[in-house]
Amino acid sequence: MKRVNTGIPGMDEVLHGGIPERNVVLLSGGPGTGKSIFCQQFLYKGVVDYNEPGILVALEEHPVQIRENMKQFGWDIKKFEDEGKFAIIDAFTYGIGSSAKKEKYVVNDPNDERELIDILKIAINDIGAKRIGLDSVTTLYINKPMMARKTVFLLKRVIAGLGCTAIFTSQISVGERGFGGPGVEHAVDGIIKLDLDEINGELNRSLIVWKMRGTSHSLKRHPFDITNKGIVVYPDKVLKIK
Ligand SMILES: Nc1ncnc2c1ncn2[C@@H]1O[C@H](COP(=O)(O)OP(=O)(O)OP(=O)(O)O)[C@@H](O)[C@H]1O
User: Fold this and answer.
1) What residue numbers bound the domain in which 162 lies?
2) Which residue's CA is the closest to the ligand 1 atom numbered 14?
3) 20 φ, ψ to 5°?
């Protein structure tokens, strides 16, 4: 089976070789745990190191802000957007008129999953995308939890059907035990949980792979850092939080 390298140092070791191709992975965590950075690194390194075009579906942040945030890690995506190897789908600035017009791919109503899927399909075909990051999937069903499973399956069919591999970020509260609700947790192919825990007066970052269809993987809680070059995972270290 083909695997997709995450582009995150140490992470492929934790996944025993990378994410199985066409998997949709839920990247779940509380506020500030590093979900957006993980997702952006997966996409950026995909283009730069593996020549795999990527699409970021932006539901939580302004595309301009995303480009700026990525730059602080040295990830300048504008160049790759111009070369047709990277695309941002703006599903954030809807309803505020002119600023949305500056973006090439714009979703006018993210509550209409058909529109989102149509634009996603166009963008995938335009750039030959292999990787999708959707930040965050929570936004798509926060007002309609009964629709979560249906929405995720719709997206999964399109993404896997077109040969892409995806990371969907999922927002949970501090201390919450789940990953984003049963409808979503069972529908996705993989779950990676990012955590921030206070130990001896200091916040510690760690992650754990809860499930990953198509591969064995580490069952340990691995510490990771966010550096000025992005996320680094320590596959040989284990963090005990209890
Ligand atoms: N240049 C940097 N170097 C080190 N750490 C950084 C840097 N930039 C941001 N961070 C850390 O990353 C955190 C934000 O990460 P990120 O935006 O990926 O979180 P998130 O899980 O998506 O959060 P939310 O759900 O609240 O949007 C910051 O709170 C900060 O601790």
Assistant:
1) 6-233
2) 32
3) -55, 135
Please choose from 8, 27, 28, 36 the residue to mutate so as to test ligand 1's pocket, defined by most ligand atoms within 8 A of CB: 36
The answer, yes or no, to whether any atom of ligand 1 lies below 6 A from the CB of 37, is yes
Which phi-psi region, left, alpha or beta, contains residue 97 (left: φ > 0; alpha: ψ -120 to 50)? left
For residues 147 and 62, give the distance between their C-alpha atoms in angstroms, rounded to a whole number: 25
| Structural domains of the chain, count | 1
For residues 35 and 28, give the distance between their C-alpha atoms in angstroms, rounded to a whole number.
7
Pocket test for ligand 1, best of 38, 226, 232 (most atoms within 8 A of CB): 226
Look at the pTM and tell me if it is higher than 0.90.
yes
Separation in Å, CA 190 to CA 66, 104, 196, 241: 25, 30, 20, 23
Q: Does the beta carbon of 53 lie inside 6 Å of ligand 1?
A: no
* 197 within a domain of the structure (yes/no): yes
What atom in ligand 1 is closest to the CA of residue 194? Answer: 21
User: How do the pLDDT tens digits run along the chain, 242 residues long?
Assistant: 899 999 999 999 999 999 999 999 999 999 999 999 999 999 999 999 999 999 999 999 999 999 999 999 999 999 999 999 999 999 998 877 655 568 999 999 888 899 999 999 999 999 999 999 999 999 998 888 888 999 999 999 999 999 999 999 999 999 999 999 888 999 999 999 999 999 999 999 999 999 999 999 999 999 999 999 999 999 999 999 87
In a domain, 242, yes or no: no
What CATH number is associated with residue 113? 3.40.50.300
